[in-house]
Each structure stands twice: as C-alpha cells, then as structure tokens.
Predict the structure.
Amino acid sequence: MSADDRRASVIEAALPILRESGAAATTKEIATAAGIAEGTLFRVFPTKDALVHACVARAFDSQRVIEQLRQVDRGLPLEGRLTAAVEIMKAHLEGFIGLMSVLHTTGAEVPRPPAGPGRRRTNPEIDAEFLDLIGPDADRFRYPAQRVITFLSMLTLASAHPMLPDHGATPADVVDVLLHGALTTIKETP
C-alpha cells in the first residue's frame, strides 16, 4: 500500500471514531479500526493532532461530493435529480458539522477548516454540478437558477444542522418546499 493510500485509509477509519468520541478517541482505537499497529499510525501521522487536522480537512473536502453529484441520473425528473443531490449534500454537511461539534464539545483543539472552496459561502464546483443537474429545467423557475441553488443550499443546511430543531425534514421535503412552496393552494390576488 502506498503512503498516500495508507494515509487515506487511516483517515477513513478515524472519521467515524472521531465523530463518535471526539477528543476521547484513542490512537489505539483508530489504529485497530484501520487494521494497523499503533506504531504504524505514528509513522503515518506524527501526532494525534496531526491526524485530527487531516480528518477535518477530509471532512471538508468536497471532491467526493462532486463525484457523487456527477453520478446522479440526469434522466430523472427535476424533482428526483434534486432530491438525490440534496441527499448527497445533507450527508456531507452532517458529516463535517457532526465532526466539528463533537471535537468542540469534547475539548479537542478544533482546527480551522482548510482554506479553499469549502470555506466560501458557496462552492463554485458544487454550484456548477447543481446547475448541470437543473439543466434544461432552469427556464421553469421564477428566479435565476443560481438563486434557486442558493435557496436550496440554505434549506439543505437548515435540514442538516444539529443546532436547529429537527422536524424530520427529508431531502424530498426540502426539494418539495423549494419547488412547490408550503401552501396547499395558491390564492389569486385580485
């Protein structure tokens, strides 16, 4: 296994443990989950803090999200395409918000997320994937497609954030509210 593959493997094994235990996670637990000796772990990451920083960087990395968004079936109706995309985004958001929350509440030094697209208010690559998913349906919106994506992002974040009340909003609910609103009927104005 290459050094990069070993590093990625350790990070993937460490993420669920850190999301569960935060600062209380031990390097022994992480090494066991990664299928390596604890000494090998320290050859990959010189300190536990270095491992935590690498895990935070991985949690914020949007490349996997972009690849998953590219796999959404463009043949689905608009609502189906957006629901699949929101499901991907919600899982990504829950992953890094959960990691940061647990690290913070367990007293770990919470590293700043890495600089880059994930630190901007929007990620241009993710927005481009959403624009591609909307595709020819963009002319069906009352707003420009980019603004619709902003609304969708806000609703998705609200549905994924643990500090906001959870009323069981599913990705389908998020898309339904975005596309159809909350009213059962639309009252016409005179």
Q: What stands out?
A: The domain at 1-60 is CATH 1.10.10 (Arc Repressor Mutant, subunit A).
